[in-house]
Prior knowledge:
Distance between the termini: 17 Å
Helix content: 25-40%
Strand content: 15-25%
Bound molecules: zinc ion
Number of helices: 9
Structural class: alpha/beta
Order of helices and strands: EEEHEEEHEHEEEHHHHEHEH
CATH architecture of the largest domain: 2-Layer Sandwich
Largest sheet: 5 strands, mixed
Shape: globular
Number of domains: 2
Amino acid sequence: xxxxxxxxxxxxxxxxxxEGSSLQYFKIIPASPENGLKDLLPEIKGQISEAVxxxxxxxxxxxxxxxxxxxxxxxxxxxxxxxxxxxxSDAASLDLKKWALKSFALPIVVENDANMALLGEWKYGAxxxxxxxxxxxxxxxxxxxxxxxxxxxxxxxxxxxxxxxHFTLDANGDKCICGNYGCIEMQxxxxxxxxxxxxxxxxxxxxxxxxKKPDFKKLFEHxxxxxxxxxxxxxxxxxxxxxxxxxxxxxxxxxKIIISGGIIGADYPIVQKLQEFVNKHxxxxxxxxxxxxxxxxxxxxxxxxxxxxxxxxxxxxx
Length: 318
Ligand SMILES: [Zn+2]
């Protein structure tokens, strides 16, 4: 059957219809998460109906709706528990199960976005051959998710494995939005990048320094062109990402780490650099944790929703 899947992001919402192992419909809609989720639901409903019509299907042909959410989610009850600051802040008060039943007469699966993306890569992507996986989404934030011995790790409060970006890196660091100090995510955020640029005032002949709107994309571009400042900052950021991976390896004992997020499209050997760092610094006497790129960075979470909806059908038929 066909699944309808929605991946709610901070800047973009991705919507797809998946049948078998193929993404039949894919659309990106700009997101305004500061306006909350309740007011967005009619738009999502309309977009799903439009997608179904485009493929000449009927709502009845859908197995259900899958939602990926950038916060903490009770994936057993398909309920959002906590939203990140200033993003979809009303989400935890909404009954999405009721919404899906009322809007489409369909079941819904809701999951944390990193967890959903790892399910997608595990079943349809770079993690297909492996049952011990960690996924790390590197971008303005850091998302993580874990599968151990073929079991997605969730924990009693549904936050196991998904807070790898909030491991402490610097005990003297600034306070993070999560409440902790010096989180990994804070040391590699866009704000941190700007702070690093400001603290390197002496390198004024840097092409990166003179960029009007420096960001990660620009950082990789200038580093590739051998700009000294860009190389220095990128070296520092890669070290932090490398430490993040070593922490995750020491915590969860994976065979493979899948790297995803906005940065993997950059023309820079990020995966190779992270592999070198991990080989040097992780305590893995048994061998080497493979660092690989996600196969479906844009649609992994949609595939994860498809997998969960298929599981739901199997469960119901038993
Ligand atoms: Zn934090």
